[in-house]
Amino acid sequence: MLHIFTPVKDSIDTTMATIEAVMASQMTEPHTYTVYNDFSTPENTRRLEEAARTMGFRLVNMADVTDHPSPNYLLMLQRAQQEALAEGAHICIVESDVTVQPDTLQRLCDGIADHPDAGIVASVTVDEEGQINYPYKYAAGMENQVIDTRKHLSFCCSVLCNRLLQAFDFHSLDAEKNWFDVTISHESLNAGLHNYLYTSLPVLHRPHQSRPWKQLKYKNPLKYYWLKFTKGLDKI
Description:
Elements: E1 2-8, H1 12-23, E2 31-37, H2 42-55, E3 58-61, H3 73-87, E4 90-94, E5 98-99, H4 104-114, E6 118-126, E7 146-149, E8 157-160, H5 162-167, H6 181-190, E9 194-205, H7 216-219, H8 221-230
Parallel strand pairs: 1-2, 1-4, 2-3, 6-9
Antiparallel strand pairs: 4-8, 5-9, 6-8, 7-9
Helix pairs in contact: 1-2
């Protein structure tokens, strides 16, 4: 069983591309799909609500769950873990700036079966030209492989295996942080599990569409890090 979820904060066009691709996935693995709307604008919230009605995915508006300002990734992870453990399921995260291929999610599930020691399995990310991009530039030159890596795996398109969910309680994550891929990748290794990056299963990644200020990381890194440290943004 696979519980797929997408965290959403505006960026409605790339978000809809993400949702459409997930909904079009060719899967034999039983699965559910939840979109967590993390305080998008009223207009974009209405668009997501209409899409949920017509396309059939579950939409959770975080404004109905918490008054904590976005980002609420921690609460999403905790809710997803609780639901997955109750059903013996894995969690698959597909972020709202990622477009999967029709076979991506099923082949990641197959990868879990192929690797009984897996804690996380992830797809490499590529740009529109098919070149490996952020956050997996370290894998450039290692295309069409399955890499057992000790580097952290991003949650762009990743499956957190049920054995990892049983080994590490997400309620122990640091609530002062915003993002948790580095910590959970490390905890997977600490639990004696292995993290696998599939460079044979590339997915399109348009980085940071939901938080455009993070584009400064590439365009104006000095300003990015000034904002990061003076305003306490983007805590990893």
